[in-house]
């Protein structure tokens, strides 16, 4: 079924994970608040959404995410101190965080799985297409990747998911997409397939535009691999039923997951090297290391 294009203004960002791979650093702070140089991971995700035209950010949280919620709120004492110190640029940067979008917070309820945040926010996006993102996935690219997804949706009128090729030996870590021959349409997606059974090397990641049809399918989707609720299972049912689901590859950039310490460090390095203020000095330092 082809959906009529509708202007997308809402994004649902899943930030209810526990971040156990980062303990003890995540004992008292959300994983999504770990810094990439001087900004938390989730702020980069939100900024990408805002730069793509999103005005309403729905953050699906849980009980221990208060510091994340506070980050996107006003901080009057800090703002006053910066103003008194004459630190105008820092003051502007801090104030912008709370005003760049409308922030809505929803507590996650339901089984484990990346489909549960969608159901937790379903009443807030009812009848609308929306962006769904994971709060620990970054895309470092010249053009905001979410904007590319939205443009794909506006052109084709169909839901769309972001993908990037990964090494063959890593396909069992991701949902892997197979394309219909000669197209950029999904034929199927397999969640964490065995290395020898993967249909391709195209890994889907935490950026997609979903439609009401996908949400309705997800509501009746049974728990899948690992006893979790997977959005990929709902997408697969949609495609099997004749639905058209587009695929958008990252261009002029790179998807950077921060879900484990090694990949988190890689993301920090990549973002630091792109900075005009610290990039050159950091690059020189890396070259000086005799490792």
TrEMBL record:
State the family named in the UniProt similarity comment for this chain. Answer: Belongs to the UDPGP type 2 family.
InterPro entries reported in the protein's UniProt record: GalU_uridylyltTrfase_bac/arc, NTP_transferase_dom, Nucleotide-diphossugar_trans
- Pfam families documented for this protein: NTP_transferase
Q: Which SUPFAM superfamilies match?
A: Nucleotide-diphospho-sugar transferases (SSF53448)
Single annotated GO MF: UTP:glucose-1-phosphate uridylyltransferase activity
What does the record list as GO biological process? UDP-alpha-D-glucose metabolic process
Q: This protein is called what? A: UTP--glucose-1-phosphate uridylyltransferase
What organism is listed for this UniProt entry? Candidatus Lloydbacteria bacterium RIFCSPLOWO2_01_FULL_50_20
């Amino acid at each position: 079924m082809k959906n009529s294009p509708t202007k997308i203004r809402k994004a649902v960002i899943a930030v209810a994970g526990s971040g156990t791979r980062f303990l003890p650093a995540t004992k008292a702070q959300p994983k999504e608040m770990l810094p990439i140089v001087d900004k938390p991971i989730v702020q980069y995700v939100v900024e990408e959404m805002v730069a793509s035209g999103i005005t309403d950010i729905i953050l699906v949280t849980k009980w221990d995410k208060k510091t994340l919620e506070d980050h996107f709120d006003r901080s009057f004492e800090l703002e006053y101190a910066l103003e008194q110190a004459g630190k105008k640029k820092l003051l502007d940067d801090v104030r912008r965080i709370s005003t760049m979008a409308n922030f809505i917070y929803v507590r996650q309820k339901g089984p484990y799985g990346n489909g549960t945040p969608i159901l937790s926010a379903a009443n807030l996006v009812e009848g609308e297409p929306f962006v769904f993102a994971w709060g620990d996935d970054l895309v470092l690219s010249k053009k905001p990747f979410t904007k590319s997804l939205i443009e794909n949706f506006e052109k084709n009128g169909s839901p769309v998911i972001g993908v990037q090729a990964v090494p063959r030996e890593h396909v069992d870590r991701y949902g892997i997409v197979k394309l219909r021959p000669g197209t950029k349409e999904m034929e199927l997606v397999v969640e964490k397939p065995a290395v020898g059974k993967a249909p391709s090397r195209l890994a889907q990641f935490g950026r997609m535009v979903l439609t009401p049809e996908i949400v309705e399918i997800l509501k009746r989707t049974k728990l899948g691999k690992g006893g979790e609720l997977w959005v990929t299972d709902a997408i697969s049912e949609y495609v099997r039923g004749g639905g058209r689901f587009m695929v958008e590859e990252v261009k002029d950039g790179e998807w950077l997951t921060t879900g484990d310490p090694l990949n988190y460090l890689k993301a920090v390095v990549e973002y630091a090297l792109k900075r005009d203020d610290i990039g050159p000095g950091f690059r020189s330092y890396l070259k000086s290391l005799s490792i």
